[in-house]
Amino acid sequence: MTTTTTSGAGRVEARRAAVRAGLTRGWLETKYSFMEAGDVIWYLAFPVIYAVVLLFMRGSTVPGTGFALGAMVLPSLVGMSIALGGLTGAASTIAVDREDGTLLRAKATPNGMIGYLVGKILMFALTTAVSLLALVIPAFTVAGDLRLDLRTAVLLIMIFVLGMVATVPISVALGSLFTSSAQTGLLFLISMLLIIPSGIFYPITALPGWLQVVGQAFPYYWLGLGARSAMLPDSLAAAEIGGSWRTLEMIGVLGLWAVVGMVLAPIVLRRMARRESGSTVAAARERFMTKGY
Amino acid sequence: MRAQAPPTSPGPAIDVRDLRMRYGTKDVLTGVSFAARRGEVLALLGPNGAGKTTTIEILEGFRMRSAGEVSVLGQDPARGDEAWRARLGVVLQSWRDHSRWRVRDLLGYLARFYAPYGTTDVPRPWDVDELIDVVGLTEHADLKVQKLSGGQRRRLDVAIGIVGRPELVFLDEPTAGFDPHARREFHDLVHRLADFENTTVLLTTHDLDEAEKLADRILVLDGGTIVADGTADQLARELTTQAEVRWTVGGRRHVHAVEDGDPTAFVRRLLANDPDVTELEVRRASLEDTYMTLVHRAETAGGRPSAGGEQTDRTEEVQA
């Protein structure tokens, strides 16, 4: 047997090299993505829509208070963008990468799957971060009502990282379950349904009890709450469940999602990848050439 | 021939015994056995649907077999780990994966995975610029993959397949869709691999000419089993037992097909019995003729190969 590669230390070193390669991959893919007009439009479309909505809300206040309505909604939108980007984005790319043979290349490379996953997570983190920055910029128009200080920045970064770690692995697992890239629309639809009880557009405390439970089971609510805790004055915590930002609970629930995702994703991905071979990619190509999808 | 000792078990690069594959009720492989020595270039030749791709995907570890024993570089591909994977090269037929990547970026990225698997005997990976030069893509190194022509893209596929300096390379229908020039360049590349790097190569093709040009040894796969195994010369003798004897008597042309064995006895008899024979011609079927018969039969009947025993010698009179 060889000296380094089959020993435990060698295996660890090989995996580390794969993680480093994956970081390069994530960086390169982000760079390539920002060189495509279509991708850039996609990243900036939602922030621009939000910005327009916020503009229309200027001058309106939360009923019964002097608090700007736009300032109230913005943090929830930040939370939603993190969750939506993380949950749907990775799943749809996985489905495409599987059809065009990208995953098969990863499989043919030693530790290639590690590199692929790390690359995907980094790319989603970077592109979502750009979208978020674009989203937060209009917030300065209502800055008087929002908290925008060091604490805000630290908390937002923490929520962003936690949100990515909690959603991207689950998304990868879901994307692996799809049999064709056309099915990713379904995931988008489910996400939209889950946003209803998330407290993002409508206060969760006004919902029936069972719907509050459903809402609190998914990352949408917690990421929205986290973003509110970062950007809203402490006095507004009174409007939340329990009258508190519940930061520890947030870390707990998102952490649980992260753990479940980290455990599930490699298993599901590996199971899916096991079925990939030159002939499955050839079959997908055949289908694409004849049917056009 | 072997300058470097192989880093692991010195046995054959590939050892397949009674490999079987069944999809549902359909038997695709009905007992395939062969071995490849280290440094050997082996062509798996056969008509479409003979089971070539299934065989190679099992060896690559991409497909689970139904039965049989398989050893690739000393390991069972069904349980191959990443260190085993690092010693293999799989040349995939790219389609549109990594289409936004630049050629040098993609090779550089993939090369990094192999660095921890380098040994003093086998430094891994290839130097990326050197490899780009070897496959003739230096001018295109900064192009996006999607801008490459079909032939350039296949050369990139080969570069990706060998970037980790594999001991064994799999090529599945490597020149499908190539023009003659691209095919020629590709053949040179495979020769180079085998000669300079002492790499074992297993390629599949349905093109006899390609198999003859590239391979040290040809395996003919038909009906889910190996029907012939040897060099092109051996195959010509082994597979083509048929010979034709043509002659003229009294202005009439005759053809006699000798189905099995040596036509000498027939000719001796013919000459002894008929002193008027002129324009005698004995022609052995070429390997190509025999292979074409095989392909034709696979395409029309899909039946099992016959040993050629049911036909007996016969003579026909033909128009001159």
Automatic annotation (TrEMBL), chain A:
Molecular function via GO: ABC-type transporter activity
Record-annotated ABC transmembrane type-2 domain positions: 38-272
Domain of life: Bacteria
TM ranges: 40-57, 77-96, 117-141, 153-174, 186-204, 250-269
Membrane topology reported for the UniProt record: Multi-pass membrane protein
GO biological-process terms attached to the record: response to antibiotic
Keyword set, alphabetical order: Antibiotic resistance, Membrane, Transmembrane, Transmembrane helix
Broad class of the protein's primary localization: membrane
Location in the cell: Membrane
GO CC annotations, alphabetized: ATP-binding cassette (ABC) transporter complex
InterPro entries xrefs: ABC2_TM, ABC2_TM_bact-type, ABC_2_transport, Nod_factor_ABC_transporter
A Pfam family hit: ABC2_membrane_3
UniProt name for this protein: Transport permease protein
Originating species: Promicromonospora citrea
